[in-house]
Amino acid sequence: MFDPNFRITPKITTALMQIEACRQAVDDLPIGASLLQHLRETAALITTHFSTQIEGNRLTLPEVKAAIHGQRIPGRERDEREVRNHFAAHALMEQLAERPRALSEGDIKRLHGLVMTGRNKPSAYRTIQNVIREASSGGIVYLPPEAKDVPALMRDLTLWINTQVADGELPAPLIAALAHYQFATIHPYLDGNGRTARLLATLILRRAGYGLKGIYSLDEHYARNLRAYYASLTVGAHNYYDGRAEGDVTPFVTYFCLGMAEAFVNVRVAAANAARQTTGDQSALLRDLEPRQRRLLALFRKQGSATAAEMAAHLRMSPRTLVQLNRAWIASGFLDYQNAARKNRSYRLAEKYNRLKI
Fold first, then answer.
1. Which of 11, 260, 290, 351 is deepest in the core (most CB within 10 A)?
2. 127-184: per-residue pLDDT in tens?
3. Is residue 282 in a domain?
4. Are residues 40 and 65 in the same domain?
5. pLDDT score at 357
6. In the predicted structure, residue 32 carries a pLDDT above the cut 80
7. Which of 252, 274, 296 is the last residue of a domain?
8. Contacts of 199 (CB under 8 A, 6+ apart)
9. Which of the listed residues 216, 239, 274 is the one where a domain comes to its end?
């Protein structure tokens, strides 16, 4: 099985702490539904723009937005298809992130299929060798594994991802970073590997609770400094069989975590500003709520009422602890009973909190 060689350095540890602090802060922000939808759509556009730009797409961000909304850009037909395909693959990634089942090779193949063809069908791995060359000189930068070895390597990578996520010992940002690196190392397709690797990393993060409400883009960080991105991916020998698999991946893990921390800090600031602008006279009422109560607002807004088990799952705490909290929250006027029967007990927001526009 895939057994990456890396170290968790003090720099990586600091980045992980920043990421966790920002994740919690953004999750607790009371962002209104309409604003959240706008922020999510903007993040998807930015991700598509920068991920395709990394691969040579020439459309500007306004042109990307126009192309996705059906407008034609003369002379840029190929670029139009690329951004529409990526935007569709990003939408599939968001759908997969909401599903509780384990990641499958089929999921990854479908992401690549959308990236390359715009069709939600699994794409087959390459059957011939490919070579990554330096654009200006034509010199070989990396020689990936032979086509015959790709299926087994991809099975191992998928199994490793699911095992690590289930174990919960390795922080999700590290799993995402290492999966990104290994996918690029295997290079299972002749084209579209970079875009698919970045979507895979984001999918892993979202499934592990690092969705940040879907309003961040890691691809912008990569695109801002492509030299650093490619340099961090260059580990060990240029030939897969001459030491690439055993190389120390710490530089790429460091690069990935630092970029993720930077992106999360930026989103935390922007989301906090947006939330302040939309809360208006609700701010005093919201200030009285503790973080756990703020996080429950979104759950109740989505489904109206909730059982203790549903609330506990949303807050990631034990149902027994949640039941005790609910007694206090009913006494304080935060919650009311939707159904007070012991067997089917459920809760709803008290009227003054139910009127909040979140």
1. 260
2. 999 988 876 777 788 899 999 999 999 999 999 999 999 998 999 999 999 999 999 9
3. no
4. yes
5. 56
6. no
7. 274
8. 51, 89, 90, 93, 111, 115
9. 274
